[in-house]
Amino acid sequence: MKVALIGYGKMGKEVENVCRELGHEIKLIISKTGSFISLVHDLNSCDVAIEFTQPESAYENIKICIDHGLPVVSGTTGWMNKKKELEKYCLEKKGSFLYASNFSVGVNMFFYINQKLAALCSQFPEYEVKIKEIHHTSKVDAPSGTAISLAEDIIQEHGRYQSWVTEMSSQRKNIIPVYSERIQDVPGTHEVVYESEIDTIEIKHVAKSRKGFAYGAVMAAEWLQDRKGVYSMKEVLGLP
Description:
Structural class: alpha/beta
Shape: elongated
Oligomer: single chain
């Protein structure tokens, strides 16, 4: 598989290491997305693109790949207000696009467990939910895309919750509080806690390194390269 790496920060370099480890060829590295336009002709020699950049550039980066018929996997968070628009564009262009707020296999199992727990707890109104996430100090967005995905899945499955907020100014029972903390060298920790007066139910995922995210992204690229459409890690992992 010939890979275009769009973004060459910590995650991009980890993806590069995993690609080489698995025998894939890094055909193109775009370290500064401002120079992307001058390099788009090189995309034709690639089988798939893996994009980890910044919220302000992700939309255009992905759109350029779609325009050039290149399947693109993106893990950039913080731009979800444009995601549906881009998915529609991809389908119209008969492109290939796979997005995940987190590519870790463990986190995607965690997502699935979170959905099932939310549906179960919806039957017991005495339990109130909250989400906490911890990441490294260089992470730009807060809350994390993973925490937002957890909150949105709870909203969809639970029924009582209508939205989430980054801090609680009141005890409104239909809003999920999401707490963010930034600590140096923490790859990512996420907790979902249901609490009542008599007990606490907690599920938690702790990432030990970025390598798990990189492996998942490369797995997604391998899966996507010969497909058309819009996908998520659910399809890659065969989760219901």
